[in-house]
Amino acid sequence: MESIDRDTLIFDWANDSAPRDTQRIAVWDESLRDGLQSPSVRDPDLDEKLAILHLMEDLHIDVADIGLPGAGQRQYDAVLALCQEIIRANMNIQPFCAGRTLVADAAPMADIMQKTGVRMGAALFIGSSPIRLYAEEWDLELVLKHTRDSVEFAVKEGLEVIYVTEDTIRSNPDQLTTLFKAAIDAGAARLCLCDTVGAATPKGTYNLVRWTHELVEGLGVDVGIDWHGHRDRGLDIANCIAAVEGGATRIHGTALGIGERVGNAPMEQILVNFKLLGYRDDDLSKLHEYVRAVSEATRVPIPVNCPIVGRDAFRTATGVHAAAVLKADRRGDRWLADRIYSGVPANWIGREQEIEVGHMSGASNVLYYLQSRDLPHEPSVVEAVLNRAKEVAELLSDEEIRAIVAKATQ
């Protein structure tokens, strides 16, 4: 077949030819902190947390929030052990811990950093929206005091501080300006903008991040911007992309999107989308292993229709879809077979397109299924399998197909 420029085969309506900052976008993994705040998860054992940490490292995840050491002895011990493992294994991933904007929460982080020598960071959070301040009966002066005291203490102890304003997406710019300036003056290295209740839209996300970016530029300081979004409205990944477009340089997520209420932006979707968009270029061959490890450790099942890692992500039993995949496969063109009916290349994560046989299948499904398993595939056998498939409401199992083949070839 005549060769063709692959770039001409897929038109990208998202490519507006506008120049984009080529800076690599960092990712921050909340699976071992915010992810464990879900009311339905199990707190993994230490050996499970260590295994998950190593998989994060394999995926080149930049930062892991590894817990709240101020929340109790179990949490403190786990954070200490994870930091010791980072040093022992000479990992590149940077550990952060979360805590309220209180000296009492920052102190255990400093203690662990001193004991291990790890390059520890502190994510110090406080509510910033008017509705939160009203409900808590806080005033702005109290929030400012907590901000200054905790950030100054953490910085003095040598911790890298990211100042986290909860519910940033519903906070007004005047109060955010006051809080951000106070945190930066106290030594915060980054600001984390939060969609704590999942209220954001892509437009709102972009506007908030862009406004913050311009504020920081106007102050003439080198302070980075993080985005931490929840998925209550199902706009989590779209908001992550909007945050990058607005100027965020680090994005937060969790494996399978686990976390408070319905969870966070799913890390596996962040990594795949960022690779597709050119924001990162990671080896994702261990992505499914990472998600499976978190799933098993937290007892959160992987839905069959979960994008990228679900059982059905790359399966089809539909005749038209299967026929197109099979035509590409017969050409020996893996690139084409992976994209003709898929927006995500299966081979990136160590998977492949799967052709099944069911009530919506055609003869091509059956023929491929039989040939790929070295089963008899003469026309009469194909017809027998296809006829049975049309009679049932579910996919034919491998055992059923083999039984039909055996009977047809007697």
Q: CATH class of the largest domain, please?
A: Alpha Beta
Total strands: 10
Lateral strand order in the biggest sheet = 1-2-3-4-5-6-7-8
Report the structural category.
Answer: alpha/beta
Q: Specify the CATH architecture of the largest domain.
A: Alpha-Beta Barrel
What is the rounded Rg? Answer: 25 Å
Unreliable segments of 5+ consecutive residues: none
Number of domains: 2
Total DSSP helices: 15
- In CATH, the topology of the largest domain is named TIM Barrel
Largest sheet: 8 strands, parallel, barrel
Spell out the helices and strands N to C: EHEHEHEHHEHEHEHEHHEHHEHHH
Classify the helix fraction into a percent range: 40-55%
Which of globular, elongated, flat, extended, rod-shaped describes the shape?
elongated
What's the quaternary structure here?
Answer: single chain
Strand content: 5-15%
Structural write-up:
The protein has 410 residues and is an alpha/beta fold. The protein has two domains: 273 residues, Aldolase class I (TIM Barrel, Alpha-Beta Barrel), CATH 3.20.20.70; 94 residues, no CATH class. It contains 15 helices and ten strands. Strands 1-2-3-4-5-6-7-8 form an eight-stranded parallel barrel, surrounded by seven helices. Helix 2 runs parallel beside helix 3 and helix 11 packs across helix 13. The radius of gyration is 25 Å and the shape is elongated. The protein starts with 25 loop residues before the first strand and ends with a helix.
In short:
This protein has 410 residues and is α/β, with parallel strands linked by helices.
